[in-house]
Amino acid sequence: MNTEMPRSQPTHEPAGCLTGVARAIALVVVLPIRLVWDALVWCLKQLWRWVLAPIGRALGWLIEYLIVIPLRWLWEWVVVPVARALWWVVDLLIVTPLGWLWRWVLLPVGRALWWVVDLLIVTPLSWLWQYVLAPVGRAIGAALAWAWRIAGQISRAVGRAIGWVLWHAIGRPLAWVYRVILTPVGHWLRTWVWRPVAAVARAVRNAAREVRVALFGGPSR
Questions:
Q1: pTM here?
Q2: How far apart are CA 162 and CA 157, in angstroms?
Q3: pLDDT digits (tens, 9 = 90+) for 19-36
């Protein structure tokens, strides 16, 4: 007995129905948009062909013949010749005379003035600086440096002499008084005055404390 079940063939009917429905809905939605788009494109093409392009050509023709050609003619036949004429006049009346004046008057006069200034001022000043002022300045500087060094040595010697005099006139006697008189007196006062006074003061303070404790009682512990 054959127990195998016959193989079932897959069916595409539901999927095919859904695809058809989706396409129909998409066509219904997209078709008006596409019609409007195609109509708009056609209108724009017609507008460009019959309106904008002729207007642009007309404007270009007007600009060419009313602005560009007159300006070109004005530049070629008026501005350039006038500029050349003006430059010829400026060159003839200003540039050429100024060049001639510079070459044949100002430059020679300037050279002559510089020769005179160099001969009468620069050369004497250079000679004066080189052979008088610079040597004198170096000699004065050397003399000042030597005087400063010697003055320092003298100042140090004077300082040492004043220090020696002050030490022997004031310092040494004061040191002797401090060492021979004040130091022994201080030791004697400390030994025979301050220590006994301090001992008496401690004894009086202790006696006063004992009297206070006996009269008023001591602090509770």
A1: 0.36
A2: 9
A3: 878 788 777 888 888 888
